[in-house]
Amino acid sequence: MYLKPLNLRLIASYYVSYTTIERFSSMLTQKTKMKGLLEILASASECAELPDRPGEEVLVERLVHHQRFSIEKPKYGDPHVKANALLQVHFSRHTVVGNLAADQREILLSSHRLLHAIVDVISSIGWLSLALNAMELSRMVTQGMWDCDSVLLQDPHFTKDLVRRCQENEGSPLRVSLILLRWVSMRCRISCSYQTLSCRTSSPMLIWPMRSVRVMI
């Protein structure tokens, strides 16, 4: 008699534990939204390995109360709740320190592998829209930003304040260019200890009120 493994068991053999695959398969539905995908990701058995430290529930509670997606009836000592909160902190680009920062790094390292498994489970069922949402969640993990954030934040040197200023002057390309050039000028002055920076470029010298700086246009 010829035995052949089921598709879910094949996925589990490459990525995650069989209990995680079973959980993904039972929780995913065609109508699952981004909030649901995040909860399913945080429900993985691998997240249960996060340590539960004394007194950490208070910190997790603060994180949960300041995130975009709420968690229904959260148990702040639950490692899955902690994983959910730390992922949302990562998307919002907030900072955690100490043991929570170490836990966040561990979650982020395993998230891509878990999301690959989620995409494979969804693809085996044939839900295209949900598969695209799962891929979007994977991009959010990689770039540390929400799906509704400006694409400018994909640049590692862009800040939310700089993006806001660009969006406020969206109808004026020249004004946006000046904002970006002033930002480049400021970064160059800071990195060079407020000394004049001359970069190798064919562009002319731009004269700013505070200092001369050559920038790449």
From TrEMBL:
<protein>
    <recommendedName>
        <fullName>SEC63 domain-containing protein</fullName>
    </recommendedName>
</protein>
<dbReference type="InterPro" id="IPR004179">
    <property type="entry name" value="Sec63-dom"/>
</dbReference>
<dbReference type="GO" id="GO:0016020">
    <property type="term" value="C:membrane"/>
</dbReference>
<feature type="domain" description="SEC63">
    <location>
        <begin position="5"/>
        <end position="207"/>
    </location>
</feature>
<keyword id="KW-0812">Transmembrane</keyword>
<keyword id="KW-1133">Transmembrane helix</keyword>
<dbReference type="Pfam" id="PF02889">
    <property type="entry name" value="Sec63"/>
</dbReference>
<keyword id="KW-0472">Membrane</keyword>
